[in-house]
Amino acid sequence: MVLKPTRRVAAALSSATLGLALLAGCSSDNVSCGIDQCTVTIDREVNASASVLGVEAKFVSADSNTVTLDVAGEQVTLTKGQQAAQVAGLQVSLDSVTDSTVSFQVSRN
Asked: According to the UniProt entry, where is the signal peptide (predicted)?
């Protein structure tokens, strides 16, 4: 079956839109994503959260080296320099903790 030019253009645009949505994998200004990995930077406050790779990540608490997050309803404690934690089919690791922000990586397994 040969598609008419109009249908080819529509199919190409549809595929491009879907590809961009999958590439982004995130819905927040504080999330920067590649294909299967995102860097999230959220405020260090109780109600801070971000939607990333299909799950919600919420700030719970932090000290100078450790951060506790709620990822997809499961609490995970991350330590700077430690291996990524497995949660909700994702790997989550801590990048940095400052007085005002927390930055962490989320990637697909």
From this structure: 1-24
Q: Is 64 helix (H, G, I), strand (E, B) or coil?
A: coil
**Residue 51's domain spans which residues?**
25-108
Render pLDDT for 8-50 as a digit per residue (tens, 0 to 9): 444 443 333 333 333 444 445 789 998 889 999 999 987 899 9
In a domain, 58, yes or no: yes
76 Ramachandran zone, left/alpha/beta (phi>0; psi -120 to 50): beta
Spatial CB neighbours of 64, under 8 Å, sequence gap ≥ 6: 97
Q: Is residue 103 part of a domain?
A: yes
Phi, psi of 13 (to 5 degrees): -65, -40
CATH label of the domain that carries residue 73: 2.60.98
In the numeric block, which tokens belong to residue 3? Answer: 């598609």
Instruction: Enumerate the β-bridge partners of residue 59.
Output: 69
Distances in whole angstroms, Cα of residue 105 to Cα of each of 3, 17, 59: 42, 25, 14
- Residue 10 has a pLDDT of 40
Number of folded domains in the chain?
1
Residue 49 inside a domain? The answer is yes
